[in-house]
Write a structure and sequence with these properties.
Length: 159
């Protein structure tokens, strides 16, 4: 059962605040760019991205509490997974986190799903299928490249 409107608005406000703190709370001097704690925590080797994503899962927990459709939860989870995976790459991952803003994306998904509970989720299904398909294609290309490289090295060594 959905919480009453006041409780629901409170949970949405918490999600918005978390997203802002993690993705857009600090203005870079001399620019119009905003960054949050996510890319800053990402500068801590090994554990920074984990901490940022753990904080970000609170938004996912709110979505679960508000009983969002599973496909929206899957899309939100994928956003966290993408941010955490690419964010683990030093420097490049932190720059990606500044651009991708997974927590802000999840807060928007949360708000849209709560305010329009009967909305079509075809876009969500397409997004999830695209991510899975793209990941599968990337995996196959990586395997093909690796096999090709091993074959070339083998022919060079065996001659």
């Amino acid at each position: 059962m959905l919480p009453r409107d006041e409780g629901r608005e409170h949970l949405l406000a918490i999600a918005d605040i978390l997203a802002k703190v993690l993705d857009a709370s600090i203005k870079i001097p001399g620019t119009s760019w905003l960054i949050g704690l996510d890319p800053l925590l990402g500068l801590i080797p090994g554990i920074g991205d984990v901490i940022a994503n753990l904080i970000g899962t609170v938004i996912l927990g709110i979505a679960t509490r508000l009983q969002l459709p599973r496909i929206v939860l899957a899309r939100m989870s994928l956003n966290l997974l993408i941010n955490g995976t690419i964010g683990a790459v030093p420097i490049v991952g932190d720059l990606f986190s500044v651009w991708f803003r997974s927590h802000a994306r999840n807060a928007v998904l949360l708000r849209e799903a709560v305010l329009k509970p009967d909305r079509e989720t075809h876009a969500d299904w397409f997004y999830v299928a695209g991510i899975i398909g793209g990941t599968g294609a990337l995996l196959l290309l990586t395997i093909a490249f690796t096999i090709s490289l091993i074959y070339k090295l083998w022919t060079m060594v065996s001659v």
